[in-house]
Design brief:
Number of strands: 30
Length: 404
């Protein structure tokens, strides 16, 4: 095997739905956790911290076959997975689903889970927060973070934690009752989710059905990527490390896509430090005619300008992007639709100037959706959900090895 082949070696994972037959604390699964015998997966999130992967999964498990929320930690970039720690939702029924996923953030010993629970109307309901201060071993439910929404219907959240433990939460709700659009809200908690302050509106008129994406920058500021309402292009808001105030900057990909429909499509953002400059990288999907597909964009100016723009795949959707430990970039996305869809990955080793040809990670015949990619010491680990026909949706994972 030559260096180029080693560099692009794919270690296909087993499904995340293997039975929990082993009794050891850390189960030796080469590419995926056993999740205590999960039967199906409705929603998930995954984040990295050093060589650890932290995963939040909403699904059904062999223990009782009811929908439950579980936190699972992995060592060595996903080589060994711990037992699931189930989270008590205080009697509320989680209803998060792919595209409106459960969200997880970690810092030190603290873990924060955010998810939507069932409300009075089908498919609607408020957000709920659960917090652990002992690395996920025990969880307690925080109060609902939203005070200004009389409809009690919030969705599409994301969450981050500062080094000092401050929790930043963003979400969408329609407290102005616009109907065709929602508002993008933000709040912070300095006491582990027990109370929330500085509730504010970042943007009053955004898409009703596309996820938000928070990203921590190397200078400790926060970037917030979201889909606007008219046009339905992606926009960026920034929150500096010294001021608790969101400022919208510029459209990330000015496609001027105007459509009276819900795209239900995510996008991704990451950043790296280049000397004194923070370089931001984004993977964006648009449905604008003659520009449809997944695009890569780069900003050297703190998100105020995005002069670099490349079409990655005109048949792609639901992109995510991550930066590796030595500056590599990877974009994953869904290629195609329905039963013919596949998970694809492209990579760049020169800061986004050039990209590899798409590599197909998922097998033929699966209906795949909403992939996520995270960096590890060995490369990039990709997660997604899939199903064949009408069978139960399951979660799968691949390690893309970029070592030479």
């Amino acid at each position: 095997m030559n260096a180029r082949q080693r560099r692009h070696r794919l270690a296909l994972a087993t499904s995340l739905l293997l039975g929990a037959s082993a009794l050891a604390l850390w189960l030796p699964a080469p590419s995926a956790p056993a999740f205590g015998g999960a039967l199906s997966v409705r929603s998930f999130d995954v984040v990295t911290a050093g060589d650890r992967l932290h995963t939040l999964v909403l699904g059904q498990f062999e223990a009782d076959a009811v929908t439950r929320l579980a936190y699972v930690e992995a060592r060595e970039g996903g080589k060994y997975w711990g037992r699931p720690q189930f989270i008590d939702t205080a009697g509320a029924e989680p209803i998060s689903s792919r595209g409106n996923d459960v969200q997880l953030a970690t810092s030190g010993r603290r873990r924060v889970a955010v998810f939507q629970v069932k409300g009075e109307l089908p498919g609607n309901g408020p957000l709920m927060v659960a917090v652990s201060d002992d690395q996920g071993a025990h969880w307690h439910s925080g109060i609902l973070p939203v005070s200004g929404d009389p409809q009690r219907n919030q969705a599409y959240p994301d969450v981050e934690i500062d080094a000092d433990g401050t929790i930043h939460l963003v979400w969408l709700d329609d407290r102005e009752e616009n109907g065709s659009s929602q508002g993008l809200r933000a709040a912070i908690s300095r006491d582990g989710g027990q109370s929330w302050q500085s509730e504010s509106t970042v943007d009053t008129d955004v898409c009703t059905c596309c996820s938000t994406r928070l990203s921590r920058l190397p200078d400790a500021s926060l970037a917030l990527l979201y889909r606007d309402h008219a046009p339905k292009d992606m926009r960026l808001a920034m929150n500096s490390a010294t001021e608790d105030r969101w400022q919208t900057t510029q459209t990330v990909g000015a496609f001027n896509w105007r459509v009276d429909a819900c795209p239900h499509s995510s996008s991704g953002i990451t950043s790296v430090r280049d000397g004194e400059t923070v370089v931001m990288h984004a993977a964006i999907w648009t449905g604008e005619e003659n520009q449809t597909g997944v695009h890569y964009l780069r900003s050297n100016a703190a998100g105020t300008a995005w002069p670099t723009q490349l079409l990655i795949d005109g048949a792609g959707g639901d992109p995510d992007i991550a930066s590796g430990p030595t500056g590599q970039l990877a974009i994953v996305y869904r290629k195609g639709h329905g039963q013919q869809s596949r998970i694809a990955l492209v990579e760049s080793t020169d800061g986004g100037a050039h990209w590899s040809r798409p590599q197909l990670l998922s097998p033929v015949g699966q209906r795949v959706d909403h992939p996520r990619v995270v960096p590890t010491s060995d490369g990039f680990r990709v997660f997604w959900t899939e199903r064949a026909g009408e069978r139960t949706k399951r979660m799968a994972s691949v390690l893309h090895d970029i070592s030479s």
